[in-house]
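Lecture 7 notes: from sequence to structure.
We start with the chain below.
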Amino acid sequence: MATRALSFDSVAELYDTSRPDYPPSLFDAVEEAGGRPLAGSRVLDVGAGTGIATRLLLARGARVTAVEPGPGMAGRLHSVLPAVPLVRAIGDALPFADASADFITYAQSWHWTDRPRAFGEAMRVLRPGGALALFWNVSDHSVPWIAAQDARLRAHGGDGGHGIHGAREQGPLLPDDVHREERRVAWTRTVPLDAHLDNFATHSVFRVLGESATAAFLAAERAELLKVFPDGVVEESYVTDLAVARRPA
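Predicted structure tokens for the same chain:
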């Protein structure tokens, strides 16, 4: 698990430029479920990676501290967001005072934690009434070409499940007795075929499989996708899954 969690370090720049961001309606849902606006709130963005969600939280007016263990990812984040406080740490042991944050966010990263420990840390660091927000972009498998691609991915790497689906296969997202609100936000983006394939190359399953196996899959996938998108422009469809748990007031 630790090896896969840090495997993104070698492709930090590609990760930053090719991974999808998040729709504005997601942050509307975070505010609604969290019971307060992001503007002016102190937010810890844990597993911040290269700062994809960090940038969007800043745009909502949040006071964000990024938390990221990987040196490559943290280096990229600091280069693009030099004014943002950055702490090298993991969610299982947050180096922050009790009751010091309004929101703790995990964008595409909660599944890399020891969840009971990370949840306990989040509840310690959140202020009473503060909110832990977990969210993942997941390809929309109701779209036929995406379902077919997922089948190819599973056949090649034996690991099509990632993000929230992979996390749920490992066990409950949150303790069973914890009240949570869950939302799903559907959205799309249009990207060049090369950008779509670059995004795939940053996923942990390929970082572990190695360069040769990755190159073979991407070459075959390019040929398959050109049958669907002959103009070389891919319309990606996502569902962003959100789970929010609040510390009792």
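Points to note: Confidence is low (pLDDT under 50) at residues 1-5. Residues 211-228 form the longest helix (18 residues).
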